[in-house]
Amino acid sequence: NSKLFSGSQVQFAAPPNSLVSFLDTSLPGTLPVLNRRCVEAAVSTGLALNCTINKKSLFDRKHYFYADLPTGYQITQHRIPIAVNGCLQYFMQEDKHQNEIVSKTVRIKQIQLEQDSGKSLHDNFRNQTLIDLNRAGIGLMELVMEPDMCCGEEAAAAVRELQLILQALGSSQANMAEGQLRVDANVSVHHPGQLYGVRTEVKNINSARFLAKAIDYEIHRQIEELENGGTILNETRAFDYKLGRTVPMRDKEGKQDYRFMPEPNLPPLVLYDAKSLPAHINDQQVINIDWIRETLPDLPSVKRAKFVERYGFQTFFVILYHCKLNKITKCQTLEARINILIFLVQKNRSLSFIYIYIRTYICVYVHIHMHIHTYIAIDLLHIYNMCVCVFSFCLLHLVLHSCFDGFQSIYY
């Protein structure tokens, strides 16, 4: 749980400048030491996204000057990244009035390792800018996607699927509210048959819902600007979630020269597979791509297939409620499952949630605790269906009654 090139710990909401090493502050004489776990996380993510893993990748210095970047450069992978040419399959509901899920794919151009900068905190009251270096040096895994998406909802669906994959792999908790997953959206519009237009970049969007709104607003803004005879500026914008619109941050008309150069303090990152691993080298001394591939956990697509096959759910419901179904099957006690069920009913006021969750609980209990084969479990479900429906109406009545009368605590 340390940074990419230093031993400082990574912790959300720690006191300012409390998790900083000499390397993070760029004191002379300090040298970077690559975090093995960050490399393994990048390799496993690349494999899960069908990327080609480069057995030899390079680190570079990207020069720019901000107060929260003590070194004056960022260590990144500009020339040869760790993974290239992948794809992400995601699912979205095109028509919210129909229970139909459409599968789409976005190409992954590359995955690269790089270090984060610090954080600038602006105090408008005192007219000061304060620097917190806790974030400086934290390992980042940047995924660059090709322009294959044409609306905000597509981008949001792709990000949600990516979140599930990262969480399943353990590469990241991917909590956007805590900055563990950040999204920059590049948006451009053009007439059919013409080349891509000038693009704008919307920076640091911290939720999938805001991502969809920011992209849709930016598409509408650019189309309206062109139809009125204006021009699109190559600029960086931010999304104001209160106003529901993007606002300018800075323009990019003067192209910045980052003066990329090879990182002299880091050798090439060399990975091995079963064929290229020398006989005299121990597996613990290197990173074996084949070993990581063999130890990959079940990805969300595999888990969804198991829900459909084992518990008899429709594919639509499994994709739509994947996180909730996965959460309830991990609960060890009936009390925990019922607590989740009651919470969701109070939140959604929907019988569909009750039926899905009770059906899942019965399937899990029969399949795991009683060790009965899947087809028998599904047959038993037909027997329980009537009981489930009756119990669902009774439970809904009790829960809604507790909501209206303010006695929610008795169910917890």
Automatic annotation (TrEMBL):
A GO CC term assigned to this protein in UniProt: glutamyl-tRNA(Gln) amidotransferase complex
Give TM segment ranges: 350-368, 380-400
Which Pfam families does this entry report, sorted A to Z?
Answer: GatB_N
Single biological process term from Gene Ontology = mitochondrial translation
User: Which UniProt keywords are listed?
Assistant: ATP-binding, Ligase, Membrane, Nucleotide-binding, Protein biosynthesis, Transmembrane, Transmembrane helix
- InterPro entries of this UniProt entry? Asn/Gln-tRNA_amidoTrfase_suB/E (IPR017959), Asn/Gln-tRNA_Trfase_suB/E_cat (IPR006075), GatB (IPR004413), Gln_synth/guanido_kin_cat_dom (IPR014746)
What GO molecular function annotations does the UniProt record carry, in alphabetical order?
Answer: ATP binding; glutaminyl-tRNA synthase (glutamine-hydrolyzing) activity
Q: Does the keyword Transmembrane apply?
A: yes
Every copy of the Aspartyl/Glutamyl-tRNA(Gln) amidotransferase subunit B/E catalytic domain together lies at 1-273
Superkingdom classification of source: Eukaryota
- Protein's name according to its UniProt entry: Glutamyl-tRNA amidotransferase subunit B
Q: Which gene encodes it?
A: GATB
